[in-house]
Amino acid sequence: MRLTLTALLLLVPLAFAAADVSKILADADAMHNQGTYAEAVKLLLDSIPASSKGEQAELYWRAARETVELGDLAEKAGKPQADVLAVFTEGEGYADKAIAADPQNDLGYYWKSANIGRWGQVKGILNALFKASPMRDLLVKELSLNPERADPYYVLGELYRELPGWPVSFGNLDAAVSLGRKAVDTRQAQVEKGVEKELVYNFYTELAKTLHKRNWSAAARAAEQKNKAAKLAVAATPLDKGSLYEATITLKDVSDRDEARALVQWVVSELEKAPSLTAPEKKDLTKAKDALKGL
To answer: Which of 48, 82, 99, 190 has its CA 20 to 30 A from that of 230?
Structure first.
């Protein structure tokens, strides 16, 4: 059946709109990598009225991503605490709008969790504890939608490392190591498949910090791996499986702290020899150098 000229003319604006949103998303990602976060937020929000629900989710979660960076910059600049908290609250609002626009887009949940977590950190330790369970719930929701997304495993690893254990909270240092390893290996697999463009070097640095804190010998690592394997056989959820991930890999015959130092030295070496770095990679290099001082 032939399309009439009128129908064709009606379709043309839709095609241009789709192309425009795709370009806007690419431009916003480029701005993120360049560190021009405020400009990225403006571009994203200005594009909302002309976009579909699915596109709005993509626009809003990116806006929530930028507020995490803007809040970090505000904190480093010594801005009043209320101003810093307002940035993260704004970001949480963008993430809520992403979720409302498309509840099946897992990144809305991730960036809501990220903004909540940073709000809690800035507000203080008790507030950080109070925010931990909502963060975990959001990340678990994300994993239910996309169990092969590396980022939630990374954040969960940090949560389980930094939080106290039972009865105060759900912190678990051994689970944190497995979650950190899961994040590293999942991201690497995605890069190899072409699903993601680059590694996230801070995943390795945070895993190293967790290994350093666990501080097991090579013998303890080998012995406990067998215990984890038995528990993994009956694990059901992505979180439970991720918390036991270390049972699935071949461990190097070294201590936790030896592996930790080697990981961070590798990160520094890889980033220092790169011909150019994005804004996130520059941050990752600084974090790795800072971490190396304490390993």
So the answer is: 190
